[in-house]
Each structure stands twice: as structure tokens, then as C-alpha cells.
Write a structure and sequence with these properties.
Number of helices: 23
Helix content: 40-55%
Distance between the termini: 33 Å
Structural class: alpha/beta
Shape: globular
CATH superfamily of one domain: Alanine racemase
Length: about 625
């Protein structure tokens, strides 16, 4: 690949900006994946997909998981806080905690806990199901288990099981009555967990989740409730168990200034509580550390204007300054940076299967007959004479003629054949006008909209709602690009549509360094050829929040690691959902459905419209079909 092509590709897809050093392009024009930034080892993603399709018989779409990127992100997080603690002479330690809600997959949780001893990484759970899973995990003795969210007695009793098993369990109190229940059960059982209090700060984050902080936040105790909690704990002689102050100002904080303000307020609350002779030792700053999805390093909602080191520096410096001013010990810092820890480790792979045409590109050239309506003749004249000087004017004329064409058709003045001929001419004029505008240094904005209208609409084999739900729900941007043919300059513009029957099942917003693109540059695709697209940074929230819209199920999955000698190994294959799996999800009974279908066929047999052999064959086909995957074969 020559330098000019590489520069063009990098500019088009911005891979250097959002990849964090994990993804790159090799000389063959394939995406490669490194296990860590600066590590020379890599996996050729195109070769890997080819192997999974041909040798392992997996089908697209698929999730490719790289566990080593989880470890790399955890170590990057820990290193940033360690460096900040060393630089500012901070007296506390850093305790990273993985919030299971971000991606509760067992393989993800266990990968983090493999580094538990090195980084003191613990777990955060916000439901009984998450807690039940967390209790059985093997954590380092000095790591934490945090219990967030609203809790009933069963939740609290399960948390006490973990206390009895020797875990450092902290029940974070979200509301006053919750603390009363914890105190009652602790006194009844004689087992006392550590207690955390979640403060409702005035400070708010920035970006899509700014509303999760501030006065109107769903969770948190007011100042008066915090003081009441301290009083209740002292009254119950459990104040020595009060170990942690927790707060959260929102996920994916885009602006570092908001972080500084929140740390000042939270540190002040910690210091004042500590001065009440409380045994607070930990401050949990929650999540919020963002991921630069578009690589712009701005306050845009799919980006962040800071690095992880800058984030850690500001947290450590501000909290130290307030604590020194208040003359209280520096708390150990707990972080729940789940998005940062998990986003990079999965790549979602799909393929283009078909094109949904806006207009008939392969139509023969329209010929004008003597009896054609005047509107057709005028459209033909515009089409034949459009050029670089008149393209804007002729495009506007064509818009007027299209309206006239449809008006005449609705009045019954022209035939269906006339309408078809006029529409072909109109779209040809649009295509030629757009081509001329691309050569113009200062085209009107309307031609940007025309580019989106005329862009190819490629049907891709996936469900947006299952695999990239945040793209639909909150317009989250994810980097999307082909994983091969990157030694060629892309020539086409496209939007992507999925295989659901929902009109919202499309992606028409794409990463760009300076703006949000409405079309994606792709290479020319022809029916029958393999063209693989990767959707990157989908490891946080997408799997667990994806829905089964249209009963599309989980995708096939492969786990890949790279040895010290540079060879990669497919360590695990997880088959995707079958049709039968999704029938069970929707509470259909397989045997009952087969019996019902058999009954329908027997009616045909008894009436003489079908033989028994044919009926048996159809039943077998029906039952075998239930074992197919839910996506396009």
C-alpha cells in the first residue's frame, strides 16, 4: 500500500484517532488487532474471519472478543492512578471495581479477576442476579465487592453470605429506609457488612448522561439524609462499619471541567463526614471516565476532551487538596470505570448482503417518443444538457418537474409507464448534479443532503437492536469501517440497513474528526462478493442492552488471544441463538409447535391433497429448520 492511499484511508476512517493503539492497517490493507498499545504482535482480522468462516464453520454476523484488551485497559487505568498518586504524594490507594452491568458476561468478569491480585480489582453488582454471580467469583482478599442499586431483604441477606465467605462487601445505601433494613438484618444475624453512603451531589456530569447527577438524580442521599444515616449507625453501634462515600455524576463524561467540580464537592462532603468521627476510608467516584468513540478529543457527546491520565491526575490532585485543607486522611480511591475497561475488547463483524436501490441504476437510457408528455421531454432535455455551470439550476428545475409529474399522475393525465420514465430521468439528473457538485469547491448545502439520498443503502446481515442498540436508542457513534480492501481508495458512499423489519434499523451517522458524517465511504461492492465490515468499541453495554426485536438472537462469538511468539489462538467458540432458542425465549413450546404443524398437515392428508410421505418430509423440514441460526445464511 502506498503512503498516499494509507493517508487517505486514515483520514476517511480516523482509525489512528479512536483506536487507542489497539487497531491498525497492515500492508495488505487488512485491519490488525494488537493485544496492547505498542505491542508488535497482532491478529490479521480479515484472515481470522476467513478462518472462522471456512474452518470453524461459524456464520456471520459474529462478535470477536479479544480478552487481552480487557487486561490492557485495566492496567492502563491502574497505571494512570498509580502515576498520579506518586506524583502528588497521595496517601491512599486505588481500588478499581468492575461494574457488572456494563457487560456481565462470565468471560469478561473472569478476565478482569485474573488480574485481581495485581490491581486489587473488585466487582460491583446492582441486582440480585449480579450479586449471586459475584459471590462465587474468586477475588483477591483485599479487593472490594460493592452492592449498589435498590435492595430488598433477599439482596441484603445474599450480600451477608459473601461477608461470611470472607469477602470485603460494602452495601451502598441509596435511601434511608434501606439503611434501617441493613441495620435490622445485621443485628439479627450478627453479621455486619461494610456500609457505604451514596451522596446526591449538586454537581452534574456532561454529555448524554448528565441528568443522572445533580439534584434530580434518581439515586443518592441528601445532606440531611447523610447526617441521619450517621446518627442511625452510631445509635446501632455500627458506625465503625461506615467505610465508604459513594457518588456518581454520569456515564461518558465529555468535559474534564465537570470532573474537577464534582471532585471538589465530593471531597468536601467526605471531609466533613470524616470530621464527625466516622470511620470512612474509601471514596467511590463511580464511573464517568469516557471513551473517545470518534477520536476528536472534544466535548462532543461521542468523545472526551481528556486522557485517562489527565482524568486520574485531576481526581487525585483535587481530592488531596481538599483533604489537606480540611486536615483529614486521604481516602482510598474506588473507581467504577466500566465503559473504559470494556469498550475496546469486542469487534462486531457483519457483511453486505444486498443493495436497496434508490433508483434503477441499470436502466437503459430513456428514449423520448413523439407522444410523450411535455414534462418527460423537459426532464430529458435537462438530463442531456446538465454541466458544471448549470447543475444547481437544472437540479432545481428537475425538482419542480418531479412534483408536476406526480401531480399529473394523480390526476390521471399520464400513464404508469410515463411516471416510471420520468422518475428514471429525475434520478439520473440528481446523480449527474451530485457528480458536478463534487467538483465544485463551494457546493450548496443541499447537495450534501442529496448525497445522503443517493447514497447506496447496503443491507447488512445483523440486527441493530440486538448488537448496536445505542446507535439507535441514543445516537451513539461507533467507528465502522471495512476490515479489508484498505489498500484501495473507497469510491462509493453508503448508509447501512439491518435485516429487521423496522424502518429504524439503519445506521446513517458515522464517525468523523470534525463532524458527524451522514454517509460512510466504502469500496464498490458487487453482488456475490465478500465485503466485511467491522463495528468497533462495542464491548460496553451493547451486548447486555441489546433486544431480541423480531426474535433475532445472539450472534456467533469467538474468543481470540495472541501468544508470546505472535501466533493467535481461537480459545473459545460460542454458537449464536437458533430459531428454537428464540421460540423458547418467546415461550413457545417446541413439541407443541411440531404437534400443531403436524395436525395441519394431517388435515391435508385426510382430504387427499397431500400424501403421508410428503407430510412426513415437511414435518422433518420444519423441525430441522428450528435448529438454524436467526440471521441470514
Amino acid at each position: 500500500m502506498n503512503d498516499e492511499t494509507l493517508q487517505t484511508i486514515q483520514q476517511v476512517y480516523g482509525i489512528e484517532n479512536w483506536s487507542a493503539g489497539y487497531f491498525d492497517i497492515n500492508s495488505r490493507g487488512h485491519i490488525i488487532v494488537h493485544p496492547d498499545k505498542g505491542d508488535p504482535r497482532y491478529v490479521d482480522l480479515k484472515e481470522l474471519v476467513d478462518t472462522l468462516l471456512a474452518e470453524r464453520k461459524l456464520q456471520l454476523p459474529m462478535v470477536v472478543r479479544f480478552p487481552q484488551l480487557l487486561t490492557a485497559q485495566l492496567r492502563k487505568l491502574s497505571a494512570a492512578y498509580h502515576a498520579a498518586i506518586q506524583e502528588y504524594g497521595y496517601q491512599g490507594l486505588h481500588y478499581p471495581v468492575y461494574p457488572m452491568k456494563v457487560n456481565p458476561r462470565r468471560e469478561v468478569v473472569e478476565e478482569f479477576l485474573r488480574d485481581s491480585a495485581r490491581c486489587r480489582v473488585g466487582l460491583e453488582c446492582g441486582s440480585k442476579a449480579e450479586l449471586y454471580a459475584a459471590v462465587a467469583q474468586n477475588q483477591a482478599a483485599d479487593s472490594l465487592m460493592l452492592c449498589n442499586g435498590f435492595k430488598d431483604e433477599a439482596f441484603i441477606e445474599t450480600a451477608l453470605l459473601a461477608v461470611r465467605a470472607g469477602k470485603r462487601v460494602t452495601i451502598v445505601v441509596e435511601k434511608l429506609n434501606e439503611l434501617k433494613t441493613v441495620i435490622r438484618i445485621a443485628q439479627k444475624t450478627g453479621v455486619a457488612p461494610w456500609i457505604g453512603l451514596r451522596a446526591k451531589l449538586y454537581s452534574r456530569g456532561s454529555g448524554k448522561w448528565a441528568s443522572s447527577g445533580g439534584d434530580a438524580a434518581k439515586f443518592g442521599l441528601t445532606t440531611s439524609e447523610l447526617l441521619k444515616c450517621v446518627h442511625l449507625l452510631k445509635e446501632a453501634k455500627l458506625d465503625s462499619q461506615l467505610k465508604l462515600l459513594h457518588f456518581h455524576i454520569g456515564s461518558q463524561i465529555t468535559d474534564i471541567k465537570r470532573v474537577k467540580n464534582a471532585m471538589k464537592e465530593a471531597a468536601r462532603v467526605y471531609a466533613k463526614l470524616r470530621q464527625l468521627d466516622c470511620g470512612l476510608e474509601f471514596m467511590d467516584i463511580g464511573g464517568g471516565l469516557g471513551v473517545d468513540y470518534d477520536g476528536s478529543q472534544t466535548r462532543f457527546e461521542s468523545s472526551v476532551n481528556y486522557t485517562v491520565q489527565e482524568f486520574a491526575n485531576d481526581v487525585v490532585y483535587v481530592i488531596k487538596a481538599v483533604c489537606d485543607e480540611e486536615n483529614v486522611p486521604h481516602p482510598h480511591l474506588v473507581t467504577e470505570s466500566g465503559r473504559f475497561m470494556t469498550a475496546y475488547h469486542t469487534v462486531f463483524i457483519t457483511s453486505i448482503r444486498d443493495e436497496i436501490e434508490t433508483f434503477a441504476e441499470d436502466e437503459a437510457e430513456v428514449t423520448i417518443d413523439a407522444d410523450d408528455p411535455q414534462v418527460i421531454t423537459e426532464l430529458k432535455n435537462l438530463c442531456d444538457s446538465i454541466n458544471g455551470k448549470n447543475y444547481a439550476e437544472y437540479y432545481h428545475d428537475a425538482l419542480e418537474h418531479k412534483d408536476e409529474l406526480h401531480t399529473q399522475f394523480n390526476l390521471g393525465l399520464i400513464s404508469l409507464e410515463d411516471r416510471a420514465k420520468g422518475e428514471v430521468l429525475f434520478w439520473e439528473i440528481c446523480a449527474r448534479a451530485l457528480a458536478e457538485s463534487e467538483e465544485d469547491k463551494f457546493p450548496d448545502d443541499e447537495f450534501s443532503n442529496l448525497k445522503k439520498i443517493l447514497a447506496q443503502k447496503y443491507l447488512c446481515n445483523f440486527s441493530l437492536f440486538r448488537s448496536v442498540p445505542d446507535s439507535w436508542a441514543i445516537h451513539q457513534l461507533f467507528p465502522i469501517m471495512p476490515i479489508h480492501r484498505l489498500n484501495e481508495k473507497p469510491q462509493d458512499f453508503a448508509t447501512l440497513v439491518d435485516v429487521t423489519c423496522d424502518s429504524d434499523g439503519k445506521i446513517d451517522r458515522f464517525v468523523d474528526l470534525k463532524d458527524v458524517k451522514e454517509t460512510l465511504e466504502l469500496h464498490h461492492w458487487q453482488d456475490g462478493e465478500d465485503y466485511f465490515l467491522g463495528i468497533f468499541l462495542t464491548g460496553a453495554y451493547q451486548e447486555v442492552m441489546g433486544s431480541h426485536h423480531n426474535l433475532f438472537g445472539n450472534c456467533n462469538e469467538a474468543h481470540v488471544v495472541i501468544d508470546n511468539d505472535g501466533r493467535y489462538h481461537i480459545t473459545k467458540l460460542v454458537p449464536g441463538s437458533t430459531i428454537n432458542d428464540m421460540m423458547q425465549f418467546a415461550r413457545y413450546d417446541k413439541s407443541q409447535m411440531s404437534a400443531s404443524f403436524r395436525k395441519l398437515l394431517m388435515v391435508q392428508v385426510e382430504s387427499g391433497r397431500m400424501t403421508r410421505d410428503v407430510a412426513d418430509r415437511l414435518i422433518a423440514e420444519y423441525e430441522d429448520g428450528a435448529m438454524r441460526g436467526t440471521y441470514l445464511d
